[in-house]
Amino acid sequence: MSMQGKVAVVAAGGSGIGRMTALGLAERGARVAVIDLDKAAAEAVAAEIGGQASAHVADCGVVSELKRVVAEISSLVDHVDILFNNVGMPNPHGIMDITEEQWQRSVDVNLKSGFFLTQLLLPLIRKSGRGGSIVFTSSAAGLVASYTTPLYSLTKAGVIGLAKALAVHLAPEGIRVNAVCPGPVRTPMLAGFMQKDTAFTDEVADLYASRVPLGRVADAREIAEAVIFLASDAASYITGVPFPVDGGYVAQ
Ligand SMILES: NC(=O)c1ccc[n+]([C@@H]2O[C@H](COP(=O)([O-])OP(=O)(O)OC[C@H]3O[C@@H](n4cnc5c(N)ncnc54)[C@H](O)[C@@H]3O)[C@@H](O)[C@H]2O)c1
User: Fold this and answer.
1) Band of pLDDT at residue 140, cut at 50, 70 and 90
2) Of the candidates 192, 4, 243, 171, the residue with the CA atom closest to the CA atom of residue 88
3) Pocket around ligand 1: residues whose beta carbon is below 6 Å from it?
4) How many whole angstroms from its chain centre is CA 88?
5) Per-residue pLDDT reduced to its tens digit, 151-165
6) Residue 192: inside a domain, yes or no?
7) Helix count (H) and strand count (E) of the chain?
8) Taking 80 as the threshold, does the pLDDT of residue 16 lie above it?
9) From CA 146, how far away is CA 136, in angstroms rounded?
10) Which residue's CA is the nearest one to ligand 1's atom 7?
């Protein structure tokens, strides 16, 4: 899965799945632009990659910030081959506890971010003249009900609908669009799905692992490898697919 000569944009690339994907794309030869809300995290990943990697700070749930960041990226590269729309946030509340503000923020971060980043980057993707690949991060919770959060299932199911619609819309241009659907992954976010205020611990991992047929939570690299496959020419006939990487979770 060589990425030599490719330009990739990784949104929420400062930690977890995004960080491992940015590193994996760069290892295979891609030039990577890392976007994250957390400036230090984005800069750390770009520094870890070195070379021409760049760091960009934005709250991707805010369209004006996306416009600024796309202008920054446009000043550095003349085209984009790969876009990883990985921004997302958990919401640990049940139906009776979700406020309008929480609803709006989840929709902005989980849905609006990827929609508008795609819209804004499409001119640069089209400029490559050789198609492209867009990967969204949905979730197993976008395919089946989440134990803890209807709002997360709602937004992550929306991501799959968006990926399918874009796949059909962009297929004539050779731009493929897919959505990876991770099960539980060992990242700082995992504990955020739980209602009590808790940090990531082995206890949290064990709780999730007990619901996964493979009997463990994923390492972020295992999700990143699937994203890199979908982004690569090895997946040249795959588009419009929700792609579970979940240890068998949705097969149950
Ligand atoms: N960890 C899991 O179990 C799991 C499972 C399924 C899906 N996901 C999805 O995977 C994606 C990545 O999550 P992760 O587990 O790697 O989390 P993580 O906590 O390791 O990293 C999330 C990154 O996103 C950044 N971020 C948060 N809000 C942002 C915003 N508004 N704009 C820009 N950047 C922002 C954070 O600063 C952080 O660097 C998310 O979309 C998440 O919903 C995670």
Assistant:
1) very high
2) 192
3) 12, 14-18, 36-38, 41, 58-61, 86-89, 109, 137, 139, 182, 184-185, 187-190, 220
4) 7
5) 999 999 999 999 999
6) no
7) 8, 7
8) yes
9) 19
10) 139
Axis-axis angle for helices 63-74, 113-127 (nearest 10) = 20
Which residues carry out catalysis?
Answer: 152
Question: Is residue 206 one of the residues assigned to a domain?
Answer: no
Q: How many whole angstroms from 187 Cα to the centroid of ligand 1?
A: 8
Distances (CA, A) of 111 to 15, 118, 154: 19, 11, 10
Looking at the domain assignment, is residue 190 inside a domain? no
Residue nearest to atom 19 of ligand 1 (CA): 189
Tens digit of each residue's pLDDT (9 = 90 or more) over 107-132:
999 999 999 999 999 999 999 999 99
Domain hosting residue 17, numbered range: 7-184+219-251
Residue 224 maps to a domain: yes
Judge contact between 157 and 142, C-beta under 8 A.
yes
Place of tokens 């006939």: 237
Q: How far is the CA of 89 from the centre of ligand 1 (A)?
A: 6
DSSP 153-218: HHHHHHHHHHHHHHHHHHGGGTEEEEEEEE--BSSTTGGGGSSS-----HHHHHHHHTTSTTSSPB
State in Å: Cα 95 to ligand 1 middle. Answer: 22
As for how many domains the chain has, the answer is: 1
> Can you give the CATH number for the domain in which 62 is found?
3.40.50.720
CA-closest residue to ligand 1 atom 41? 88
